[in-house]
């Protein structure tokens, strides 16, 4: 009996995160082309639009948390969407430094036009699975996400901090 890639783990091609990244990158490229070519928004901007749909008046920090993104990157995306007129911001009267953001009418129309197309791409990808397999896959994804959270809670204090600045030398490792 031969081992599956997830059991074998013999090369980078067998690693779960590599395989999921490849799937996401390949499938995501279709959504990127649709978003950028058809609607003039980036995939990150589309994610914010989709997240704001049905959630009026989120704080930018709440949005970043819900999307599992850092605040600085989320802030840049919000600024870009404000410039495109796809979202609106309202300054809170009790705290002039805080704002709540919502979809504008234009953002809502974009969502209503783009979401069915993104759903269709997802549906076509999932059509490779039977209904039972898709339900099982959803359950497995939920279990993997729960395990990732447990692992993150355990490893976060001991993992080294990231150095994302290009050009920095890497720390010496044995």
- Average pLDDT level: 88
Order of helices and strands: HHHHHEEHH
Q: What is the structural class? A: mainly alpha
Low-confidence stretches: none
Give the amount of beta strand, in percent. Answer: 5-15%
CATH superfamily: Winged helix-like DNA-binding domain superfamily/Winged helix DNA-binding domain
Principal-axes shape call? globular
Strands side by side in the biggest sheet: 1-2
Please provide the count of β strands: 2
Number of helices: 7
**CATH architecture designation:** Orthogonal Bundle
User: Helicity, in percent?
Assistant: 55-70%
**How many domains is the backbone divided into?**
1
CATH class: Mainly Alpha
CATH topology: Arc Repressor Mutant, subunit A
What is the compact description of this entry?
The chain is mainly alpha-helical and 174 residues long.
Structural features, described:
It is a single chain. With 174 residues, the chain is mostly helical. It has a single domain (5-155), classed as Winged helix-like DNA-binding domain superfamily/Winged helix DNA-binding domain (Arc Repressor Mutant, subunit A, Orthogonal Bundle). 61% of the residues lie in helices and 9% in strands. It is built from seven helices and two strands. The protein has helices at residues 5-8, 16-39, 43-52, 60-67, 71-83, 105-126, 131-155; strands spanning 87-92, 95-103. The chain has a two-stranded antiparallel sheet with strand order 1-2.
